Amino acid sequence: MIPIHDSQQSFSKPYVTILLIAVNALVFLFLLTLDPFTRNDFVFAFGLVPDRFHWSAILTSMFMHGGWMHLLGNMLFLWVYGDNIEDILGHGKYLLFYLLCGAAAAMGQYLIAPDSRVPMVGASGAIAGVMGAYMMKFPHSRIVLAGWFIILFTIELPAYVVLLYWFALQFLSGFGSVSDVGAQRGGVAFFAHIGGFVAGMLLIHLFKTRDRYRLRRDLLW
Description:
Elements: E1 2-6, H1 15-32, H2 36-46, H3 55-60, H4 68-89, H5 91-112, H6 124-137, E2 142-149, E3 151-158, H7 159-176, H8 178-182, H9 190-203, H10 211-220
Antiparallel strand pairs: 1-2, 2-3
């Protein structure tokens, strides 16, 4: 099941979220123009390869994706959750928050397998940080999920239920994939998701939210 909408209203335009989606899409389309050998070299040069760790790769790897489903899934999650976090932080602080979560996510995966030669790419870790922040700030927001079982259906659940379930899946899958990481096999970077989510939960408390968000919160409470 995938999130398609949330009930939490935003009071500002999510310019940074839109920009992040556009940059990720443009980088992916650029990669499609390359021949397979050049694309492979590009991924190894700008993806995060733990065995050849370079600080700049933490940033560049956040804007690369391994396929259409990888890109579209990440961008959908960013669109659903990102606008509200951008709304309460403001554009500049939100961008900094996003990048810090992405860096924490990359380091989380790196520490699990520092000798891996498999390049890590994707915005999943940074977006996981946004999701962690969303759970802390809007736990009772309603998330509409779409699924398929014989027919297409939707279901609406509280944000904390959806996000805790998602985190539990990453946690269980992460520890179930430790042998794959050690064997240098590619796949989903679950520990990046875990690291990003936890970083988002913690970092959101260090970023001062906009006055109008605090006023709305006080009125609601």
